[in-house]
Amino acid sequence: MKSMDSNDFFETVSKRPDLLPQYLDAAKEEGMAGPGNAVCVRTADFIEKHIPLSKRAPMVDLGCGDAALAAELALRGWAKVTSVDAARLAPRVVVQNLGSLPDDWTDRYEVAVLCRALWSLDYLKVLEEAHRVLRKEPEARLVVVEPFRRWWGRGQDGGELENQLLSALERAGFHLLLEESENFRMPVAAVADVGKSATKSLFQFLLASPVPGEDKAPESQSWG
């Protein structure tokens, strides 16, 4: 499935609804899905720590899987979480293509979450859709939770290892809030072993705004 773009994936899942449950079962075995899983709890902790909004602010969880994050946030008092994925793996999940969300969702949400959801070939399109559905306000936020292993590679000039997710966020129109983001630099112990299982359980927690702010890193910044 990771060799597909969002449109192909949505069409495939529509024809083969058994595929995502299989993926979910595998993720549960790794402790990355199911109620109260570690990644979900850490993401909820990050949201509570860094989102400067009322718990009644409208939030959308894009690529929600079994909607474990919405359930965790509901326990903490967050009242308006819309869970979205290509298949309904839990009650009240809204079925949509992450690369082509409804037109009338433009500027609808104050918080958008992408937790382990940027694996498609056209991940930039998914980021651009997340930007579109967010309100263009200083308080609006995007939360991205992604494994290190997926995003670390050589720079365009073949130089030092860089976190390519950060540049992707900027290309999609987001403004990085690095003071509040966590684990976006490669741990020293993992630099020499970036492609192996040592980095599998390491996640970066990124916060971004859909409008310009004071915390944007210079374009020349290297995140290696």
TrEMBL record:
Signal peptide: none annotated. GO terms for molecular function: methyltransferase activity. The keyword Ribonucleoprotein does not apply. It comes from the Eukaryota. Its main location: nucleus. Its EC number is 2.1.1.-. GO terms for cellular component: nucleolus. Pfam families: Methyltransf_8. Probable methyltransferase required to silence rDNA. Belongs to the methyltransferase superfamily. RRP8 family. This is Ribosomal RNA-processing protein 8.
